[in-house]
Amino acid sequence: MPRGTILVTGGAGFIGSHLVDALLARGDRVVVLDNLSTGRIANLDQASTHPDLHFVQGSVLDELVVDELVHRCDTVVHLAAAVGVKLIVEQPLKSLTTNIRGSEIVIEAAHRYRRKILIASTSEVYGKNSRGPLSEDADRILGSPAVVRWAYSTAKAVDEILANAYHRERSLPSMVVRLFNVVGPRQSPAYGMVIPRLVRQAVREQPLTVYGDGSQTRCFAHVTDVVAALIGLLDCEAAIGETVNVGSPAEISILDLAWRIVKATQSTSDVRLVPYETAYGAGFEDMTRRVPDIGKLNRMIGWSPTRTLDDILRETVAEARAEEVARTQMLPA
Ligand code: UDP
């Protein structure tokens, strides 16, 4: 007996597809809206034969499709977005349109039909605030809007403000989740994310490209833990109207991460420091540190991560090795 019908925008993406699997497993009906720009239909392989999955290939910019799908569902999880620093730096206009206009269309439809909506935001909204751990009310510290990276942060902040304004002024049952670096199986290396990239480099015995001096730190959460947090928040009445960090508090420098990956893959690769401007173009600014305060999430739903970085690396390495075998088998002899 299905519990409810949940629309997942971006449901063929990395996080979305794991969420879809988990929702189907607990008995929900799921409708996925994805334009397959960065999402992949293969991410839904496991879910594709499930009778309670309905997949629609389309864009969140298509108001008619969004209207119809939101109408058919009782809850919306809005994950569709242009993500990944590389993609945003390379296609700023498209990214901004998707992230601002797309979210506005989805939020407006949720309001029209009074649907509960979870909006995925990002730790990028904190900008260069490198104090840690960052609680939800920490200041945003941003560079010039002319620097594309901060445009992404601003777009996501606009989404948050819009959701909050609809909640306060129009009683929309919305919640905002700020995701810190989420990793795990199905995350593509194509959009610049560090773990899938470095793991593939190590598996191919290529140098691992660490940007800057590698002293910048991040905290990596396993996608399965993150999905459990999203579902916990969807079921939590107290989360309505709130903004909540989701991420792991375990901090590691990117240089240490690179060597951990070399060790985990038993690779002969070396680590190569690459200047930021070579990687992302002139004027790029990185965050030196980004650590979530997850006290609020823990108090709300009793969540803390169950998987370590070693667990994450083990799975990512296994996936990369399997891909590598498939790739070499397809090469002409
Ligand atoms: N990074 C790196 N080498 C890569 C890709 C990324 O050193 O091949 C760095 C990047 O500059 C950043 C960190 O790894 O400091 C995390 O990057 P990612 O794009 O995964 O996430 P975000 O910057 O959004 O935290």
The string of secondary-structure elements, in order, is EHEEHEHHEHEEHEEEHEEHEHHH
Shape: globular
Straight-line distance between termini: 52 Å
Please tell me the CATH architecture of one domain by its name.
3-Layer(aba) Sandwich
Q: What would the CATH topology of one domain be?
A: Rossmann fold
Look at the structure and give the mean pLDDT.
94
Helix content: 40-55%
Biggest β-sheet: strands ordered side by side in the sheet: 3-2-1-4-5-6-11
Strand portion: 15-25%
Bound molecules: uridine-5'-diphosphate
Poorly predicted runs of 5 or more residues: none
Q: Count of DSSP E strands?
A: 13
Rg over C-alpha atoms, rounded to the nearest angstrom: 19 Å
- Describe the biggest sheet? 7 strands, parallel
Count of DSSP H/I helices: 11
Task: State the fourth-level CATH superfamily of one domain.
Answer: NAD(P)-binding Rossmann-like Domain
Structural class estimated from helices and strands? alpha/beta
GO cellular component, one term: cytoplasm
Main location: Golgi
Subcellular location: Golgi apparatus, Golgi stack membrane
EC number: 4.1.1.35
Question: What key attributes describe this structure?
Answer:
333 residues; alpha/beta; Rossmann fold; two-stranded parallel ribbon; 11 helices; globular; binds uridine-5'-diphosphate
Brief synopsis:
Belongs to the NAD(P)-dependent epimerase/dehydratase family. UDP-glucuronic acid decarboxylase subfamily. It comes from Micromonospora pisi. By secondary structure, the protein is α/β, with parallel strands linked by helices.
